[in-house]
Amino acid sequence: MNLYFSRVLVSGALALLAGRALAQRGVTPPSDKLPTQQPAAASAQQPIHFNPDDKSQKWSVHFQQTIIKQWHNDLSPRYEGPLSLQARESAKLSLTSTLFVGRRLWKGAAVYFNPEVAGGSGLSGATGIGGPTNGETFRIGDPAPQLYLARLYLRQLWAIGAEQGEEFEDDLNQVAGLRPKRFLALNVGKFSIADYFDQNSYAHDPRTQFFNWSLMGAGGWDYPANVRGYTVGAVLEYVSPEMALRAAITSMPTDANGAILDYHYGTAQGLTVELTKPYTLGGHPGAVRLLGFRNQAAMGSYRLAVRDIGPDGADITSVRTNGRTKYGFVVNAEQEVSPEVGVFGRFSYNDGHNETWVFTEIDHSLSVGATSTGARWKRPTDRLGAAAVVNGLSPEHRAYLAAGGSGFILGDGQLAYGLEYIGEVYYSIDFPRYHTALSPDYQIIFNPGYNTNRLPGPVHVLGMRVHVEF
C-alpha cells in the first residue's frame, strides 16, 4: 500500500507541474465549467462535446486528475452481513487520471481517444450504502492503479439547414469550431452513456460537483456500462434550439457488476431514449429532461430467488436466465435562479423485479439541491453545493434482502426496511492559476442500505477532493 500512495503522490505532482508549465506558456483553462456555474440552456441542448465543420483546429488535447480521500465515523452496528458498511475502517483514497485526445477527420467527423488510470477504493469497497459516497470509485478488488481504455469513438455530425450557431471553445473531447443551430449526430464506439444522457448543469460530475453516486446521476437508472462505467454502442442525436432528442443502443456486461461486455445485442442490450426541452423562466434558462430505458440481460428474479430459498439464504445467481428486462424512467430538471445560483431535481424509477445489473441498488430515488458561485464573498470561481436524496427499493428487492440475499452493493443478512436518506454539502475552492480545485465535502446518511435497526444513528462522512484539469 505504501507503493500505491507513492504512485498517487508522484502522479499528482506531475499533473500539477504540467498544469503550471501550460499556464506559464499562456495556455488558458479549457473552459469555465470547473469553477463556475455552467449555463443551463447550453447543457440542456447539447452533450459535453461537439464536432462541427470548422477547419481551423484539428486537435484537442486535455488532461484531468482527481484524488478523493474519505473517512467515516466509528459505528456500533447491531449485526453485520457480507456487504455491510464496515463499523471501523481507515480512510480510503481514490485516484483517476484521464487523457482526452480529439482529432478532426473530415467534414463533420472527429475521433476521440481517452486512456485512463484509476486506483484506490471507496469506503467499505463501495458497498453497504444504496448511494455510495464517492462517484470516482469502482467495485473492484485490487486498489492498485490500472491503465485501461475509457473511450474510443467516432462522432459524425450533419448540419440541418444553413444557419450557423456561435463558436465554441476547445474542451474535453471537444474540438473548437462553429456549432450548427440544428444538426444530427451519430456517435459510435466506446464511451460512457452518461456523456449524452441525464445531463445536469449542477449535479452530474463527481470530479467537480457532488461526490455521491445518487447525485452524480439518476439513482434508479441502472445505466448500461461495465464495472468502470463505460460501454460500447451507438448514440443518435437530433439537436435544435427548441429541443433535443437522443436514442442509444449499448452493450450490457456479461455478469452483474462485470468488466466484460456482452456483444450479443439480440439477447443483451440497453435501450435509452431522452427528450430535452430547454426554456426560459423570468429571464433565466432552465431545462427538463425525460428519459426512458429498457435493459435486457441474464438477470436473476428477486421473486424466484425468495421462492427457491436455500439453507444459506436467497441466492439471486441461482435463478439467472437470458432475456430478463428492467424498465424505468427519469425526470430531470434544472433552473437558473440568478447568474450565481441554480437549483436542480431528479426523480428516477425502475420496476425492480429483476436484479440490479450495473449501477447501484436503488429502485427509486428523489434528489433536490442548489449550487452557488462564490461571487457574493468575492470568490467568483468557487462553488458551494448542498443537496438531499431519498432512495428506496421495490417490494421484491426488499423481500430478497430480508431473506438474507446479497447483491453486489448490499447484503446485511437481514433487513428492517426503511428509506435511505442522504445529505451532502461541498465547497470547491478554485485556484485558476494552477488549474486546480480543492473541495472539502460532508455527507450524512440515515438508514444506510435501507436498514432501520442495524445502526443506532447516522453515518457521517468527511471527504477532500483535489481536481486538476487543463
UniProtKB/TrEMBL annotation:
Residues 27-55 are annotated as: Disordered. Residues 1-23 form the signal peptide. Keywords: Signal. Residues 37-47 have a biased composition (Low complexity). GO terms for biological process: carbohydrate transport. GO terms for molecular function: porin activity. InterPro entries: Carb-sel_porin_OprB (IPR007049), OprB_sf (IPR038673). GO terms for cellular component: membrane. The keyword Signal applies. It holds the Pfam family OprB. The keyword Signal applies. Belongs to the OprB family. This is Carbohydrate porin.
